[in-house]
């Protein structure tokens, strides 16, 4: 494939139309690699792209959305470290799609067609080790404010398990904004709750799911704890869609056969989704920005990175400045989209030495020129949990280079959070109410 693209780039402009671009030889490899995981039966995309007939009738659409960069949905810019499963098309691949559409979307030689990708029906990572289903559906009203509900699945596990991935398959995708996962001590008879799962002493966060996110297995040797005698609690954020929706998720758990060698930890900058960062965006402001920094107390290795904001989000970036002064980019999203909130797993663990300074910023556009602004005309926006409020941070998932230093990492990060929290609370005591309402779930995400 690489040699085909290299040769294509050397063709003079006058010779483009004379060079046949076919589905079998040029377009199918692009679609199978970058599009088929979502564009197939049973997934969230509105149509399949597994066959020539599927692609041909949408050739003009494919040319348009790939040229604009709207598809495939990959918001992260190239950084200092490669990500797994990148869906970013190269300039050569985009050019091939454009020319194929111009030439009438020819099929080409079937013998040159690559084998279509193999998927296990209904699952991105293959058949899970444990498949669970919500015991009953939850009805989300057609309108009104956003809802937060905790839906519970009893596990009845008599012994400790370890989880490498959780694949969430909501039935009401249009209304589920995000879901946080917890293992919480069993509470017989409870299936729906409005209280935080962190209210059960001993609850363990297990990550989460958001719109547009891919599911990944943790690297070998890493896993999350699923203690014995716990329930799985799913903290949903529902955003009413305009009609009544019924949510009854199916969840797949991918298990490890042994305990992890090192413990995972989340370093979020600014911490706590910016609740202590004075997010108060005036109407008309096109580049409101918050930023913060945290210095690593021990050597760590980064596993993944991801950002979060709402509709007004514009740009976010996280960098690592080594003790030597060398600067590396860990994440940079120049064109944030509320609809595509992925977590980006590094292709290889990223070593960051003790003393490395982690810097991050998030910016928002609250002007009338922002097509994603839900308010017409723009209004003042502050930090909050509703979709039309705002929050923002960049989160880095890490492991200590030496497990013995995990406690030091956790202690240092706790001091960082408290150091930002206390001055902010002294200035604005209403922050405490926001924390009680939202922060336990946010901190686990």
Defining traits:
445 residues; single chain; disordered N terminus; alpha+beta; 3 domains; four-stranded antiparallel sheet; Jelly Rolls; disordered C terminus
Notes on the protein architecture:
β16 and β17 form a beta hairpin. Helices cover 19% and strands 30% of the residues. It is an alpha+beta fold. The strands form six sheets. Strands 6-3-9-5-7 form a five-stranded antiparallel sheet, covered by helices on one side. The chain has three domains: 2-112, no CATH class; 130-256, Sandwich (Jelly Rolls), CATH 2.60.120.310; 265-444, Jelly Rolls (Sandwich). The chain has helices spanning 2-9, 23-34, 52-56, 59-68, 91-102, 406-427, 431-444, and strands spanning 130-133, 138-140, 147-154, 161-169, 176-185, 192-193, 204-210, 224-226, 230-238, 245-247, 250-256, 265-269, 280-281, 288-295, 300-308, 313-321, 327-333, 343-352, 357-364, 381-382, 393-400. The radius of gyration is 23 Å and the shape is globular. α4 (59-68) packs antiparallel against α5. It has seven helices and 21 strands.
